[in-house]
């Protein structure tokens, strides 16, 4: 047995034990340490690029619209890129795909730094970076199963990468603002290019070369056929929607925090605290679930946490002040702990030859629906008060989640082992 396989077996055994510090054991896998470090570099680079680009474009054009468009272009190409490129995640070796995506992003960032690059060119380069992002994320998620196995270590590895992304958003914007006090925007963007190059180097030297996982027939799948392969199965479709739809409602209070805070007379300091509440709660919830709960328990809490996760937002109906709202948003973030159990359900349901494609589509839909949720929240708030919009989102979101779990249970009832996706007998 190889050293890597022995380490994976050790991780698997330790993370199944109640109360085991599973996150520490995952770090004993050398390849995962390289993936984690690469993720940290690239995420910080993206966050710094986002704030630097908005400042740069505003200085070049003097247009708030163009500045906001630069930020939005980090999300808009996700749906197109993830849909068109999803098949590449399984068709080519994962390491090659990941390194290529990093090099593309590094080249785009480097081109932005050139003094002669016009605003239109900067926007096109921003779109190109966002276009390959879902392919990178899906390929990396699928490769985690190759590195850590498809059991509990995979779930903990995914959790760590999510927490890095959440933390980077909290820290990165502050770091980006600090950098812009000592560097010009193009200088800060140069650090983004360096971050992507560092990520590519870590992935190239720190992970093993593995063959593509796809079979010949799957390699010839069209985009439409690939979508049908992933979403045509009733169980996989329900699980996918459980990743996509709840965030559409969860982002509503975050998207409307500024107008709500203004409406209750809260200052900028209070607004900053409120903006941090949900991400901090999500990080704390994942740490708790990953460190204190067994894999079986994490799976069993998926339904209650996901179904009840939006209910605290009903407090908006009485227009709470800052202290109550801060606690409410924190609790809403804590409920995000159900994602660890959902990750295990998903990787168990996806055939190995479709894993890269499925993971790419999963990240694509997640980002797309969050953007849609923010846009719909803003549109609704143009016609009705903010507190009414958030209250309605909490009620509608809870109903949607309950319906999805009903659909998942029906799909499980028809499966050969007659057990549902929580490990409980189907009713």
The shape, in one word, is: globular
Using only CA atoms, what is the Rg? 21 Å
Question: Which architecture of the largest domain does the CATH hierarchy give at level 2?
Answer: Up-down Bundle
CATH superfamily of the largest domain: MFS general substrate transporter like domains
Percent in strands: under 5%
The helix content is over 70%
What is the first-to-last residue Cα distance?
A: 42 Å
Counting helices, strands and paired strands, the structural category is mainly alpha
The CATH topology of the largest domain, please? Answer: Growth Hormone, Chain: A
How many helices? The count is 21
Regarding CATH, which class of the largest domain?
A: Mainly Alpha
Mean pLDDT: 84
Oligomeric state as shown: single chain
The number of distinct β-strands equals: 0
Unreliable parts: 1-20, 417-427
The total number of structural domains is: 2
Give the ordered list of helices and strands.
Answer: HHHHHHHHHHHHHHHHHHHHH
The largest pleated sheet is described as: none
